[in-house]
Automatic annotation (TrEMBL), chain A:
Swiss-Prot/TrEMBL keywords: 4Fe-4S, ATP-binding, Chlorophyll biosynthesis, Chloroplast, Iron, Iron-sulfur, Metal-binding, Nucleotide-binding, Oxidoreductase, Photosynthesis, Plastid
Classification lineage: Eukaryota, Viridiplantae, Chlorophyta, core chlorophytes, Ulvophyceae
Function: Component of the dark-operative protochlorophyllide reductase (DPOR) that uses Mg-ATP and reduced ferredoxin to reduce ring D of protochlorophyllide (Pchlide) to form chlorophyllide a (Chlide). This reaction is light-independent. The NB-protein (ChlN-ChlB) is the catalytic component of the complex.
Record-given protein name: Light-independent protochlorophyllide reductase subunit B
Gene Ontology terms, MF aspect: 4 iron, 4 sulfur cluster binding; ATP binding; metal ion binding; oxidoreductase activity, acting on iron-sulfur proteins as donors
Enzyme Commission number, as recorded: 1.3.7.7
One biological process term in Gene Ontology: light-independent chlorophyll biosynthetic process
SUPFAM superfamilies (UniProt xref): Helical backbone' metal receptor
Domain of life: Eukaryota
Species annotation: Caulerpa brownii
PANTHER family per UniProt: LIGHT-INDEPENDENT PROTOCHLOROPHYLLIDE REDUCTASE SUBUNIT B
Alphabetized Pfam families for the sequence: Oxidored_nitro, PCP_red
UniProt domain Nitrogenase/oxidoreductase component: residue ranges: 12-417
Automatic annotation (TrEMBL), chain B:
UniProt GO BP: light-independent chlorophyll biosynthetic process; photosynthesis, dark reaction
HAMAP family: ChlN_BchN (MF_00352)
GO cellular component entries: chloroplast
Pfam families: Oxidored_nitro
Keyword set includes Metal-binding: yes
Keyword line: 4Fe-4S, ATP-binding, Chlorophyll biosynthesis, Chloroplast, Iron, Iron-sulfur, Metal-binding, Nucleotide-binding, Oxidoreductase, Photosynthesis, Plastid
Cell location: Plastid, Chloroplast
This protein's encoding gene: chlN
GO molecular function: 4 iron, 4 sulfur cluster binding; ATP binding; metal ion binding; oxidoreductase activity, acting on iron-sulfur proteins as donors
Ranges annotated as spanning the membrane: none
InterPro entries documented for this protein: LIPOR_BchN/ChlN, Nase/OxRdtase_comp1, Protochl_reductN
Name of this chain's protein: ChlN
Domain Nitrogenase/oxidoreductase component: 19-409
Amino acid sequence: MKLAYWMYAGPAHIGTLRVASSFKNVHAIMHAPLGDDYFNVMRSMLERERDFTPVTASIVDRYVLARGSQEKVVENITRKNQEQKPDLIVLTPTCTSSILQEDLQNFISRAQGGPEDADILLADVNHYRVNEFQAADRTLEQILRFYVKSNLPKTEKPSANIIGIFTLGFHHQHDCREIFRLLKDLNIQINLIIPEGCAVTDLNKLTQAWINIVPYREIGLMAAKFLEKEFQMPYISTTPMGLVDTASWITKICQKTNCQSNYKKYIDHQTRFVSQAAWFSRSIDCQNLTGKKALVFGDATHAAGITKILVREMGINVSCAGTYCQHDGDWFREQVQGFCDQVLITDDHTRVGNMIAEIEPAAIFGTQMERHVGKRLDIPCGVISAPIHIQNFPLSYRPFLGYEGANQIADLVYNSFTLGMEDHLLEIFGGHDVKTVITKNLSTDQNLIWDPSAIDELQKIPGFVRNRIKRNTEKFARSQKTDLITLEVMYAAKEALAN
Amino acid sequence: MCTETLKFECETGNYHTFCPISCVAWLYQKISDSFFLVIGTKTCGYFLQNALGVMIFAEPRYAMAELEEGDISAQLHDFDELKRLCFQIHQDRNPSVIVWIGTCTTEIIKMDLEGMAPKIEQMIGCPIIVARANGLDYAFTQGEDTVLAAIAHRCPEKKQITAQQDLVLFGSLPNIVAEQLTTELANQGIHVSGWLPEARYEELPELGPGVYVCGVHPFLSRTATTLMRRRKCQLIGAPFPIGPDGTRAWIEKICHVFQIQPQNLEQRENYIWQSLQPYISLIQGRSVFFMGDNLLEICLARFLVRCGMIVYEIGIPYMDKRFQASELKLLEKTCQQMNVPMPRIVEKPDNYNQVQRIRALQPDLVITGLAHSNPLEARGITTKWSVEFTFAQIHGFTNARDILELVTRPLRRNNHLKDLGWSQLVASQT
């Protein structure tokens, strides 16, 4: 048992449902107790989805516990077949149903109807061993394995499949459009985009493509590896995030497809003149960011990508880069090696919070959780990875990948740091806000008392460093086991820190 | 004059609602010295963190005891594990009570929470209460019912019989609303001797034979049963104080039990109705469909009928005809008075069938959960998110306006956007 307040990656069935409901005309039936269909709310709210989420629960209740759920599951499958005529039904166990240890595969063979009825698959994931991402990766591979049977002749012109565009993914729709644009520029056709909007009946066409592109390594790699092994399709798992990686991504694609166009010229032109990000990094604005401290935390793809951009393309000092994708920790370590002072691989948000409090970076790039830690510590935060809120599903075009993505990231980074010149001027003129003490801190320890004279002194400190000084003083007071902060304590704290 | 009676139906139970563990969200805020420990899996945690949104960031007084593979396969000793976590909570937060919320998983692996709690309670010196608020047995607000029923056992025994008759109200309400209802009764000369729950665990009211109890929420049937059978209290069965009509009927019933002639109630009710007139003119003659997910449906429907609306269907997760008897009677009476057809009451509804009925009936307003709101809106059907009724202040005379504020909001929005010509926003399907 583990005391937990918050988690970065969701339970396994969420991953399976994300895959199933991204396909067209695929219905998922969850074997779950009442209330576990919260996925429908998330999809309807976060994605502002106009259609009913194709997920139904086959409810596990007392009656089912006593009698077994066979009848119910079979009945629900037959019913869905009639009501919605899906191509595929994915029976999705949940953590509750998996401990019932019913033979769901057997129910499926009983429910299997005539040739006009849907195919039925049992999502094969262990709820106590894998998380949302791993389960999604696995389910996607499972569905491909079921439908992709033969190697079709390749398309005449170079073509690619994009694997891993999902519902509820972080800026997936925008990224997909951006990749589409890039490939079009390179004269590479898109064969299939999976799973988003793809019909399972089209999946056999997958093997027509020359290559597979996996933009995010969390979900899609297993499928790509399967296609490579069974059908000798090469895949590219580089993420085209930032100018450098976009360039190497384009190079790899063009080499693997024997692209005739002059891609080197294309990259150079895009980098220097179409995208603004390269020019931004040379402009004097970005100069002010040089050596500023940042902390990056998120899923493996985004955290590694952003870390490399900050360091390599903007000259920012990443004090700590981290990911919650523990199963992919080795890859992450290898990627950010040499780009950051330390690596943090954990799914415990308090460890990340403490790390932020300790480092006190000038900006954080993380998930919604890090954004809230930043709020409490008065450190700005740019959100670069799931888990996310509804505000991270913007209506406007906001890719993270490709050349437009590089522009978006540059804006995000620049706006997250206290604006360069403004910061400079504040430092020179001693700040413009000297009104109130803000009592935000990360500690639950509220019993420190500030002497009025110390409060006065604190007010005199410019606003943008006041909180840091307040925190440091309190930290010092605690270490001295004193709970009254007087002027003396404050000065002693300052001295202690200076040494 | 319409002479039908209410019709009850029961469907498949394939409907969307919140998991009953969501009750920790409002209960930990209400009982300010409590700590709620939800003993469940990642699924429960994921639901809580997403459903409760930003609240999680304010150092909530609740946490998950997340079961891992070792717990499920009994490689770890659950007693030691729970003891360890409760020690830690006790040390870090020092709550006056720890509430264990049992979930589906603890049910299925038959974890003996009720057996372990007293032992651990003794070891750490902090009361531990067990409530089985799981999705196998309950829906959404019924979570509060299980917690309050468990807390009812811990209320101190009534020691001396006072001259005055004791009245304890049960149901968790924001402190300000509880205060408003207490004052309404005080105006009639009725003293409320306590609430279950109070704002602090340590202030729980005394219970015992001779104490009258009355509920303020329609989903508290287990609590009512516990109070009657185990604590020997006398239950006052009344309609619920939601809407001015409900509030008046509620007060009248309590007055009747205490043999008091209610004063100025009719004027007070009429005055409230008058102040609601601008809202009522928006909904008069409109139709409404409750898909059902929080058990407030009967009393809300009754209030809306009284406001002049026509209710097509009242979906409801669970219908306790005994606990809701007065409320159902009032609904029937209201329908007759307003001369509208009786709504069909559908227990354990089937959301898929309901959507088909909604398509056929084209109601002016559908009160439903978030899973269906956006898809229905995209098809030109106006919806109101039902969970808001659980979190908004809707009890008593003063808050009737808030109910109508919620109900009319989508209709007012429609009035603003009506001439734009884009109410149907899905590609036409035949």
